[in-house]
Amino acid sequence: MPSKDHLSLTREELYNLVWAKPMTEVGQDFQISDRAMAKICARKQVPVPPRGYWAKKNAGKSVSKPPLPEFVAKPPKERRAGVTLGRPTPEKGKIHSMFEERNQAIKKAIKEFRKPLSEAIDYTVRIEEWRCDYSFGLNPCYNPLHLDNRISFLHEAPFSEYRDLVLRGVFLEPAKLRQRKFEARLAREAQLDKKTIEENLHRYEESPPKAVGAFLKQNPYLLAFLSIPEDAFALVLQSAAAHKINFMTLRGQKLRYGRGSIYSYSLQEEQDQ
Asked: Which of the residues 32, 39, 268, 272 has the least number of beta carbons within 10 Å of its own beta carbon?
């Protein structure tokens, strides 16, 4: 009998063969092992005689023969993740899901980033005087075991140095604050220079910055604590020394209990019309 004829057998033909004689003999007829024939039966859902069946039958004992059951199609098995260098490789569906989750997180962060900007109001100040404060010393927050990964670098240096430009004046707008005393403290921030921001853009994707400063009520002044890029500090200081900073415009939250975030500010020699 040709060696591959077993491939064309119907379930009924296969059932009749394996219950007519031992599996080893059926396998020999097709030039395959009894083990291979048993696998074919299992694949085609054909029941085979249990162990000891032929010995009992040859001894004249009563043996049972189950009927051929209907074939039941099984659902396809889920693809298993591949393995690369000993690590499981995520399935395509999972990779797609991971990207979708990240994109959703970014979309949510962008929405939260833009909403307060759209609700912000403008504050206009006339600058009347300025000074420059300087301090240098040990950084009490220094901790090399707790490096900050959010670009503030607060814990990364054992020394702290501050060069704060202080501007004072009075509010012109909004009307509710008109003639209220104002003081701005501009603290230079090394991580806000253009090069560093570009190098760390990926850090902002799911966690955009919340503000560039904040208002704080401290009688008789309404203070504005502001960050300024380190590479811009010298230019602004020179402008202040040359009396070319006469007005300041800030955009931020509507104040609540004398507090609020500041999203942007600009310094002008002449008041914007």
From this structure: 272
Residue 153 has pLDDT above 50, yes or no: no
pTM exceeding 0.70:
no
Condensed to tens digits (0 to 9), the pLDDT of residues 204-213 reads 877 888 999 9
Dihedral sign computed on CA atoms, order 68, 71, 72, 75: positive
∠ CA 188-113-191, nearest 5°, is 25
Report strand pairing: 181-189 vs 221-229: parallel
Q: Please say if the pLDDT value at position 147 is more than 90.
A: no
Q: How far apart, in whole angstroms, are the C-alpha atoms of residue 144 and residue 164?
A: 26
Helices 34-43 and 11-18, packing angle to 10 deg: 140
Structure token pair of residue 74 = 């099984």
245 neighbors 262 (Cβ within 8 angstroms): no
pLDDT (tens digit, 9 = 90+) per residue, 79-136?
554 454 555 555 556 666 777 888 888 899 899 999 999 999 999 999 999 999 888 9
Structure-token pair, residue 175: 């009307």
Mapping DSSP onto H, E and C, the string for the chain reads: CCCCHHHHCCHHHHHHHHCCCCHHHHHHHCCCCHHHHHHHHHHCCCCCCCCCHHHHHHCCCCCCCCCCCCCCCCCCCCCCCCEECCEECCCHHHHHHHHHHHHHHHHHHHHHHHHHHHCCEEEEEEEEEEEEEEEEEECCCCCCCCCCCCCCCCCCCCEEEEEEEEEEEEEEECHHHCCCEEEEEEEEEHHHCHHHHHHCHHHHCCCCCCCCEEEEEECCEEEEEEEEEHHHHHHHHHHHHCCCCCEEEEEECCCECCEEEEEEEEEECCCCC
Centre a 10 Å sphere on the Cβ of residue 215 and count the other Cβ atoms it contains.
23
